[in-house]
Amino acid sequence: MPAVNTVLVVGSGLAGAATAIRLAEGDVTVDLVEIDPGIASLGSGITLQGNALRELRGLGVWEEVRKSGYGFDSVGLRAPDPAGTLLFEMPDARTGGPDLPATFGMPRPDLARILHDRAAAVGVRTRFGVTVTGLRQDAHHVDVEFTDGSAGRYDLVVGADGIRSAVRGILGVELETRATGMGIWRAFGPRPASVTRTDLFYGGPCYIAGYCPTGENSLYAYVVEDAQDRSALTPEQRLATMRALASAYHGPWDDILATLDDPARVNYTRFETHALPAPWNRGRVVLIGDAAHACPPTLAQGGAQALEDAAVLSELLLGTDTLDESLWSAFTERRVARAAAVVEASNQLGRWLLDREQGDVPGLMGRVAALVAQPA
User: Fold this and answer.
1) Whether the predicted pLDDT of 43 surpasses 90
2) Which of 48, 129, 270, 363 qualifies as a cystine partner to 52, CB 3.0-4.6 A?
3) pLDDT level of residue 40 (50, 70, 90 thresholds)
């Protein structure tokens, strides 16, 4: 018998959807609420490392994911010169095991749809346009108030509602979310034949310029600059700004720029980060995913760490009949240090770039790969 019978999951991103699926598969009654009015369509693509694919396979969605994206096993480094010269290509670590791609790109909305369809199939009850406004708990239950005026009682509440978590705020958990000093332009568009993996360009007007194939006919491309307030730009100005920055890069970038003409496909965000020390729970309410740890995408591990949170939490809840301190201690032991190490490594890569410092990037990436290759 599981440790809980009824669970509320707040937030339907990777951490929330995966937790809801795994618990519902274990015969737990799960409600999932999401403040957005529908499956999120914002954003362009997502890069998933092998350890993320391992968790998606555990959720029973890998085959559908595989058909919706693009896998590859190497990364290239190119020069910011007029030819976009390929300096070298290196194999990427298969952190999910030898039978999964090292790296996989796909459109974010497609991944969200696949996970929500799976959640519905296993009995998760999802409500959009709703989040929590109040939490009151005793030794056995959590009473919840929702923005639509309804209420509910649950054995456990999982706050998977992102970097600005409402659940975290209601709990009064203090956590400093800080800007790293970098901002990223992303664009989604058609994939030219010249793009078959991620290539990274260092130098030029941006810290990083790169791209990731997300399907047979799609990719997302990005350039990373000093963080700035870009909020006053019109969509057309955002497109022009990204095009101007990216025009310093060549090789496959020339093919990408030839089709980068839709302002609606361009977005800008600043890198932010935080890492919540143990414990991540307050009684029968627990924070996971970006609500507990958020890192810039320099290692492409944010989604993977969210999925690992969901896997470990669900395994522990389904594997014992009591929600007690021993369960929370086991969760802390398996997740807090590992997630914090990934956050720190992601931030370290950014600091080296900001400081124009020649750090040991291969060594750092190798250590993170060795860490996440072991199941959480």
Assistant:
1) no
2) 48
3) low
Peptide bond just before 80 cis, omega within 30 deg: no
Whether residue 219 lies inside any domain: the answer is no
CB of 207 closer than 8 Å to CB of 225: yes
**Rounded Cα–Cα distance for residues 41 and 86 (Å):** 34
Backbone phi, psi, residue 122, to 5°: -100, 5
Q: Which of 65, 33, 60 is nearest to 122 (CA)?
A: 60
Does some domain include residue 341?
yes
What are 283-311's pLDDT values in tens digits?
999 999 999 999 999 999 999 999 999 99
* Torsion sign, CA atoms 334, 302, 269, 183: positive
Q: What is the CATH number of the domain that holds 352?
A: 3.50.50.60
Q: Which domain holds residue 355?
A: 6-67+107-177+272-373
> What is residue 67's predicted lDDT score, i.e. its pLDDT?
97
Asked whether the beta carbons of 271 and 183 are under 8 A apart, the reply is yes
242 located within any domain: no
Total domains in the chain come to 1
How far, in Å, CA of 255 to CA of 59, rounded? Answer: 36
Instruction: Indicate if the pLDDT at residue 44 is higher than 90.
Output: no
CA gap 30, 93 in Å, rounded: 35
Q: Which amino acid would we find at residue 123?
A: G
Q: How far is CA 199 from the centre of its chain?
A: 20
